[in-house]
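Duplicate of #3305? Posting structure anyway:
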C-alpha cells in the first residue's frame, strides 16, 4: 500500500475528488490540517473513510489564529491519534511571530505527552528548536516533514529516534537528496505535501508519491514493491504504538 504521510486534502479546490481518488487507488493518507477548526470539519467529513486519517493541526504560520484556537486543540488532543501539521517556522515568512509560535508549540506539546501519536512536524528555519522542544517533552518517533536543516541537526534528529518524510519536490533539492542518501531506510516516510508542493508548477496530488517510492527503490537498490514495503513498515511501526 502506498502511503502519503503528509497531505493537506482540505486545501484542494475539491477535497471530495481527492478523497475518492485515494480510495480508488488504495492510498493511505494522513490528512494534516492547519487549525483545530479545520480538523473538526475534516474529521467529520472523513468519518467512514478508513484509508484517510485527519490530523489535528496548528500550523506555525497560523500562530495568531492558533492562540485563539489553543483551547480547542487541548480539548481535542486526548482523542486525536494523528497530530499535524505542528511546529515552528523561523524563516523570513514566519520570524515575526516567533515568540507566539514558541508559546503555542510548548502548549501543544504539553497536551500530547500522555501517549504515543503519529506526529508530523513543520520545522523550516527552526529545526534545532523543534528538536530541542521534543526532547524537553520526551517525545520520540515524530516525523520531520520536508526537512531543510543543517547536517548536525539532521544527525541529531536521527539519534533521537525521529523520522523524515520526503516528497517529489524535495527530491530535486540538495536537502532532499541528503535525506534519502544519509538517513537509514528505517527512518524514511513518503509524503506529497499537496497541494503546496509543486511538480512542474502543478500542485502535487497524493498519487504523486509513487515517484518518490521509485526514487527510493533506485537509491536503495531494491524493487519498487520492496521500497513500498519498507516505508509501510516504518509507518506501521509508529501506528502500532498508537494502538497500545
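Output from current build:
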Amino acid at each position: 500500500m502506498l502511503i502519503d504521510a503528509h497531505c493537506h486534502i482540505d486545501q484542494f479546490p475539491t477535497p471530495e475528488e481527492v478523497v475518492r481518488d485515494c480510495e480508488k487507488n488504495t492510498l493511505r493518507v494522513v490528512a494534516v490540517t492547519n487549525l483545530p477548526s479545520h480538523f473538526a470539519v475534516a474529521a467529520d467529513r472523513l468519518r467512514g473513510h478508513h484509508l484517510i486519517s485527519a490530523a489535528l493541526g496548528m500550523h506555525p504560520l497560523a500562530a495568531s489564529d492558533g492562540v485563539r484556537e489553543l483551547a480547542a486543540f487541548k480539548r481535542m488532543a486526548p482523542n486525536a491519534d494523528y497530530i499535524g501539521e505542528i511546529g515552528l517556522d523561523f524563516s523570513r515568512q514566519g520570524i515575526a511571530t516567533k515568540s507566539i509560535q514558541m508559546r503555542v508549540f510548548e502548549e501543544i506539546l504539553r497536551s500530547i505527552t500522555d501517549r504515543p501519536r503519529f506526529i508530523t512536524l513543520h520545522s523550516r528555519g527552526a529545526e534545532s528548536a523543534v528538536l530541542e522542544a521534543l526532547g524537553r517533552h520526551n517525545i520520540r518517533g515524530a516525523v520531520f516533514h520536508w526537512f531543510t536543516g543543517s547536517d548536525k541537526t539532521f544527525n541529531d534528529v536521527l539519534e533521537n529516534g525521529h523520522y523524515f518524510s520526503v516528497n517529489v519536490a524535495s527530491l530535486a533539492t540538495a536537502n532532499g537528496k541528503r535525506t534519502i542518501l544519509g538517513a537509514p531506510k528505517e527512518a524514511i516516510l513518503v509524503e506529497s505535501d499537496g497541494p503546496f508542493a509543486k511538480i512542474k508548477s502543478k500542485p502535487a496530488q497524493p498519487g504523486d508519491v509513487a515517484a518518490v517510492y521509485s526514487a527510493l527503490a533506485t537509491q536503495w537498490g531494491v524493487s519498487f514493491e520492496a521500497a513500498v514495503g519498507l516505508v509501510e513498515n516504518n509507518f506501521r511501526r509508529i501506528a502500532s504504538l498508537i494502538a497500545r
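Confirmed duplicate; merging threads. The domain at 57-194 is CATH 3.20.20.140 (TIM Barrel). The two ends are 23 Å apart (CA to CA).
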